[in-house]
Amino acid sequence: MDECFIAEQYRGIRPAPGYPACPDHRVKAQMFEVLKAGEIGMGLTESLAMTPAARVSGFYLAHPDAAYFNVGRIGDDQIADWARRMAMEESEARRGLASVV
To answer: Which residues are CB-contacts of 71 (< 8 A; sequence separation ≥ 6)?
Structure first.
């Protein structure tokens, strides 16, 4: 049987949760819920690593002008504001954004 690969070609970016443009890994839990990833055998560990291990996730932004960016260091006031808007404890917000605090 011949293997068939889908050759996707798009101009854009694929920022992924946990990387500089999207430092909060917790969005993966919502992503997996919306996509019903468990129905095809995918899951998340306690630390939000994907299972099986050879999986990737991201947000595809297919626009020719899309460009990668980094979220710089954020201040205490920004953490407090984000935690309030997300209805979470500030300590939880700090854990979720540890790479940019």
So the answer is: 20, 21, 22, 23, 100
The two three-digit tokens of residue 94, written as one number: 């700090």
Q: H or E stretch including 80?
A: helix 76-85
The residue ranges of every structural domain in the chain are 11-65, 71-101
Q: How many residues does the chain have?
A: 101
d(CA 97, CA 22): 9
CA distance 60 to 82: 24
> Tokens in use for 21?
């443009």
11-51: per-residue pLDDT in tens?
889 888 888 888 888 899 999 999 999 999 999 999 888 99
What pLDDT is attached to residue 40?
93
